[in-house]
Amino acid sequence: MGLITQLLTLPLAPVRGALWVMDQVVLTAERQYYDPEPVRRQLAELEQELLDGRITEEEFDRVEDELLDELEWRKAWQRQHQERS
C-alpha cells in the first residue's frame, strides 16, 4: 500500500483489526470442535465399558459405529482445512 492509501484507510484500521480477531476466534473454535481426540477418548471409554460388562455387545457396536462416523468426518474436515491452508 502506498502512503496516501494508508492515510485514507487509517480510520478503517480498528474495523480490520476487529475482523482479524473474529476470524482467529472462529478458526480456534472450529479447530476445537473438529478435534478428533475427544472422539478417540470416547472410543477408549466405550471399549472399557464393554470389557467391564457395563454395556452389551450390541450397544457397543451401535455406539462404536456412531463414534467412528463422527471421527471420520472430523478427520475429513481437518484434511480439507489443511489443503486450504
From TrEMBL:
InterPro entries: GvpG. It comes from the Bacteria. It holds the Pfam family GvpG. This is Gas vesicle protein. It comes from Streptomyces bathyalis.
